[in-house]
Write a structure and sequence with these properties.
Radius of gyration: 16 Å
Oligomer: single chain
Helix content: over 70%
Length: about 120
């Protein structure tokens, strides 16, 4: 139990730090006030978890420890629903309703496409 907690925690630490750096793009890219750093993080994380899910189903290359580290820890720490919803709240407070629709729609649509392609890619491996 302690071993699994440490594995997940280590992955979560690395994922959170990576998210912090990529989310810095929110300050540098401004198009309809969409937080592109968070959008990129969530789409990339969706692709990675789709890829890892496909690999896990088709092979024994990822042990339970590696799945905990990569899928629960790294992807869990890397992607962030709470930042996504908070950024939408800020857009709402600023009256940017079109931005809310674009950001939410792009996040859901591109996130699903990314997880699908990550998973489908494992069929080619």
């Amino acid at each position: 139990m302690i071993k699994n907690i440490l594995i997940i925690g280590t992955g979560g630490f690395i994922g959170s730090v990576a998210r912090y750096f990529l989310s810095g793009l929110n300050l540098n890219i401004d198009y309809f006030s969409i937080p592109f750093g968070t959008l990129l993080v969530n789409i990339t994380g969706s692709f990675i978890i789709g890829l890892l899910t496909g690999i896990s189903e088709r092979s024994t290359i990822l042990t339970i420890e590696w799945r905990l580290f990569l899928m629960v820890g790294l992807c869990g720490g890397f992607t962030t629903f709470s930042s996504f919803t908070n950024e939408n709240l800020m857009l709402l407070h600023n009256g940017q309703f079109l931005s809310i629709l674009l950001y939410t729609g792009l996040s859901i649509f591109l996130g699903f496409i990314a997880v699908f392609f990550g998973y489908a890619l494992t069929n080619l491996l």
